[in-house]
Specification:
The protein is of the alpha+beta class. It contains 19 helices and 26 strands. Strands 2, 3, 4, 5, 8, 16 and 17 form a seven-stranded mixed sheet that branches. Strands 10-9-21-20-19 form a five-stranded antiparallel sheet, with helices on both faces.
Length: about 625
């Protein structure tokens, strides 16, 4: 019995051992066959290291393919501390090249880490500095590619484009809003080292970075340049608190140009205060609009049929009293008897008080809301304001009267330009937008953005009447300085007194001008505003309107707008320069040319008595006193 018991135990032990051995073999088989790839990767990670290679951000283009945001290739310093044999010599050499203290560089070289990116001293190195580091040929010292954002036109469109931080991440504007599309995917240089960081003799592996997607804007570079030029001129001439300009295509809401002062250079954004960096005035600034708002009131009155602006009359004595408050016209003695078209031409406040009364607060403020005031326009930029309107229970007779001529309510420039676009485009209110499409590196559009229609506000018939009315303002009213011979220009001036803590300030105004070109078939709406200009007459017709005319000429060129017939003829005043047609003087003697060009300032170039060339060409319309160059040669030549 005793021997049988021993034999039985041996059999159990043998079977148990065999089963355990079987389980071990099964586990090894499972690891070798089913988990080999996973374990291989985990093992590889123990001795492989990655030096990150930064991807280029996608470029930003204007509507015609001009690059507004680009990339520069730079290099950055990366250390593998365990591979550096002589840390003292390396620290001293790098500190000298990077112009930092020995102690500061020592923190990087002696750091107990597998990879050390030298930041910020070793970021975005110049070619000269990078070359000096490369010449050291020190093991464990690496230079890797980095992409640096570059704005070739410096402060052009700066608030809209935004800027990028040192790690190539978008921090404001389009750079921030579309960062996920623009940033791309970083690559790497994979090298191999043992547990102590010593490099293993094995070929490095390069994984190429993937550039970000490109963004194409609705902005027209030529129009943007014109806005920036004139905003710069405004700064020099008037030293204002702020200045801004917007150009929009009224037919679809595309932003063609947008500029403001103060601006900044995104290549050097660190030099500017956050109050400058974060204020995109055309979409953010909120203020009383003044007389440019009269366009909305007039359009509402025409749509409701409360007046016929060509036939109905209003007598302006220079002031009107509403519930004990005296509301004055800018012309002290008043404009006397006038049609409501002339009320708009003359920007007569009492006349607009009458229109507000005829409409009543429910109808007027219904149109104000329908035109988009009191709510965001929906532009594809962050930081948009929405202005401030009276609530209906706050609107008394005085509030109704002042709102009708643009005082007592608060709006943004973008709201105004979109509302006027709806007035002149047939009555359609659109959301503005600035990103046209997003494309990959093969220039195939991944995303396309289109016009976003919001609502119909007025009829096409009312819109046609308003286009003609605005053309009359430029030809015969306060917008005469914006008149361009041969082109149909519509517009409206605005001079809004600013308030602070409920009290209106003395000699502190926002002067503005709203323009439409061409008035009969609008291709562009321009809005220009100057906050508290110094050393100028306190009327927008003398301040903003001549500047707007220069911008309009650039818009006409950029959009290739042809001359139009049937324009409202300008009422010339005693101090206006009258346009004349340049005669053809080629082939004439110098004496004959002088007689024909008596209305112009003739400039003679060359030697001789016969005119062989002239500039500008004949039939060109020029203002009296403009220069006409003639090129002369002698008869024998």
């Amino acid at each position: 019995m005793f021997f049988k018991s021993i034999h039985k135990r041996e059999k159990v032990l043998f079977l148990g051992t065999s089963f355990c051995l079987f389980l071990v073999i099964l586990k090894v088989f499972y690891i070798q066959v089913f988990q080999y790839h996973k374990l291989s990767i985990l093992a590889s990670h123990l001795w492989s290291r990655d030096l990150e290679v930064e991807a280029d951000r996608g470029k930003i283009y204007d509507r015609n393919g001009i690059i507004l945001a680009d990339n520069l290739t730079t290099t950055s310093l990366v250390l593998i501390p365990n591979q550096i044999k002589d840390k003292k010599v390396t620290t001293k050499a790098l500190a000298s090249i990077l112009n930092v203290s020995y102690e500061e560089m020592k923190k990087h070289v002696y750091k107990n880490t597998s990879i050390e990116r030298v930041h910020p001293e070793g970021r975005r190195l110049s070619y000269k500095v990078a070359e000096k580091i490369a010449d050291l040929k020190i093991e464990g010292v690496y230079l890797v590619k980095e992409a640096k954002r570059y704005y070739p036109y410096n402060d052009l469109l700066s608030h809209t484009l935004g800027y990028v931080g040192i790690d190539n991440q978008g921090l404001s504007g389009l750079e921030l809003l579309y960062d996920d599309y623009l940033k791309g995917e970083n690559g790497a240089i994979q090298y191999f080292s043992d547990a102590h960081g010593n490099k293993i003799t094995k070929s490095d592996v390069y994984k190429a970075p993937t550039s970000g997607m490109d963004i194409h804007l609705t902005i027209d570079f030529q129009i943007q340049k014109a806005l920036e030029r004139e905003i710069s001129n405004i700064e020099k001439m008037f030293t204002p608190n702020n200045a801004l300009a917007i150009v929009v295509n009224p037919k679809n809401g595309e932003i063609l140009g947008m500029a403001s002062y103060p601006d900044f250079n995104p290549n050097e954004y660190q030099k500017y205060d956050t109050s400058v960096l974060s204020r995109n005035l055309p979409i953010w600034f909120s203020y009383e609009p003044g007389s440019t708002f009269k366009i909305v009131t007039m359009a509402s009155a025409v749509e409701e049929g409360v007046v016929d602006i060509f036939k109905d009359h209003f007598y302006d004595s220079g002031k009107v009293t509403v519930d004990g408050s005296v509301l004055k016209c800018w012309k002290t003695q008043g404009h006397g008897n006038q049609t409501f078209l002339e009320v708009l031409q003359n920007s007569c406040n009492p006349g607009f008080v009458k229109l507000g009364q005829l409409l009543g607060k429910e109808r007027l403020f219904s149109y104000i809301h329908d035109f988009g005031f009191g709510e965001k326009t929906g532009i594809d930029l962050n930081g948009e304001g929405k202005g401030i309107l009276f609530s209906m229970n706050q609107i008394g007779n005085v509030e109704l009267a002042t709102s009708a001529f643009g005082q007592g309510i608060s709006v943004t420039p973008l709201q105004q330009v979109m509302a006027v676009s709806a007035v002149v485009n047939g009555g359609y209110l659109y959301s503005p937008y600035i990103v046209k499409s997003i494309s990959n590196q093969t220039q195939n559009n991944i995303i396309e953005y289109h016009t976003k229609f919001r609502r119909k506000v007025i009829s096409s018939e009312t819109s046609a009447i308003m286009r003609l009315a605005l053309e009359h303002v430029v030809a015969k009213g306060g917008g005469k300085s914006a008149y361009i011979e041969g082109y149909r220009i519509g517009g409206k001036t605005g001079t809004a007194q600013k308030s602070e803590n409920g009290v209106y300030l003395v000699n502190n105004y926002i002067m503005s001008f709203m323009a439409v070109v061409p008035a009969n078939n609008p291709e562009a709406v321009l809005y220009l505003a100057i906050d508290n200009p110094k050393n100028t007459a306190m009327l927008s017709s003398y301040t903003t309107t001549p500047i707007a005319r220069r911008i309009l000429l650039d818009i006409i060129t950029a959009l290739k707008i042809p001359e139009q017939e049937g324009e409202v003829v300008k009422d010339f005043e005693w101090n206006d320069k009258i346009p004349y047609e340049v005669p053809n003087v080629i082939g004439k003697t110098l004496q004959e040319a002088k007689k024909l060009l008596y209305s112009f300032d003739m400039v003679v170039e060359g030697e001789g008595d016969i005119v062989v060339e002239q500039s500008p060409k004949s039939s060109t319309m020029l203002e009296e006193g403009s220069k006409v160059r003639v090129y002369v040669k002698s008869k024998s030549m």
